[in-house]
Design brief:
Layout (H helix, E strand, L loop, with lengths): L6 E5 L4 H12 L3 E6 L2 H11 L3 E5 L5 H11 L8 E4 L14 H27 L5 E6 L12 H21 L4 E8 L6 H4 L12 H12 L9 E4 L11
Parallel strand pairs: 1-2, 1-4, 2-3, 4-5, 5-6, 6-7
The chain binds NADP nicotinamide-adenine-dinucleotide phosphate.
The site of NADP nicotinamide-adenine-dinucleotide phosphate (NAP) has 30 residues, from α1, β2 and α6.
């Protein structure tokens, strides 16, 4: 896809890799609708990026709000080309210590939210005569289970299955579907997950953003359906 003048929706644009995706896309002359709950963070990004970044306060677990916003925003003369399903979170913890509410929050955000917005965007993409692209952000935790990650693993394995089904379903409609499986990236994710801080051996948000741009810029006749990214050395420099 030639990205110039395209229109993208990025969920979770207020921090971390969603912010880096928005910066990289605007740098490629894409108009980005950046969705998240923290409007102040989105406004700061708008100040940095200018008119090509459009902040949208949205809780992606709220289907009615998503439905209303998509139908108010898009029409036959203004169609989305790109959807980046990035918003997500984790709570680390042993299965007998993870609360029901923490588990539900992960499922509602990482799984239901991805379905809700995809469900509403796909009909507009089907009307788009240009090739479109949906990129879902799973995780290494969508490929490999690990202790204290049972809830998060559940949701990211789900994103993998959703992505593969969608890829096979939508290819004949001219819609590419890719799934990214990054390892640890230095973002706020580790604070939200109560999983300790970040360290300098982790990947940086810009590393993941440049890979995302590479996926989007593939010629229209093929796609890269899955990408795994890992830090070369996953251990903190402080670990022996
Ligand atoms: N960091 C890693 O090591 C890593 C590795 C692999 C995959 N991932 C995945 O990458 C994605 C982005 O994470 P990140 O590392 O960039 O973490 P982050 O900095 O914590 O960003 C998470 C984003 O998701 C948004 N979000 C969370 N719940 C939301 C909701 N209900 N509605 C709308 N937006 C919501 C947050 O915005 P608000 O709080 O403003 O709503 C924020 O913008 C997640 O799906 C995560 O699972 C992260």
């Amino acid at each position: 896809m030639n990205l110039s003048k395209k229109t993208a929706i990025v969920t979770g644009a207020s921090s971390g890799i969603g912010k880096a995706f928005s910066q990289a896309l605007v740098g490629k002359d894409v108009t980005v609708y950046g969705l998240a709950r923290r409007m102040n963070k989105l406004q700061e990004l708008k100040t940095e990026l200018g008119e090509r970044f459009i902040p949208v306060q949205m809780d992606i677990t709220d289907f009615a709000a998503i439905e209303g916003w998509i139908d108010r925003t898009f029409n036959d003369n203004h169609l989305p080309d790109i959807l980046i399903n990035n918003a997500g979170l984790s709570t680390f913890g042993k299965v007998d210590e993870l609360s029901v509410s923490e588990f539900h929050t992960m499922v509602k955000t990482n799984v239901n939210g991805v379905f809700y917005i995809t469900r509403k965007v796909v009909p507009y993409m089907k009307n788009n005569p240009e090739v479109c692209h949906i990129i879902n952000i799973s995780s290494i935790a969508g490929l490999v289970g690990n202790p204290q990650l049972s809830g998060y693993n559940t949701t990211k394995f789900a994103v993998r299955g959703f992505s593969e089904a969608l890829f096979k379903e939508l290819r004949y409609d001219g819609i590419k579907v890719s799934c990214m499986y990054p390892g640890s990236i230095a973002t706020e994710f580790f604070d939200t997950a109560n999983a300790g801080g970040t360290h300098p051996n982790m990947m940086m948000p810009g590393d993941v953003a440049s890979t995302l741009i590479h996926l989007l810029e593939t010629p229209d006749n093929f796609l890269i359906d899955e990408v795994t990214m890992r830090p070369l050395n996953p251990k903190s420099p402080n670990d022996k």
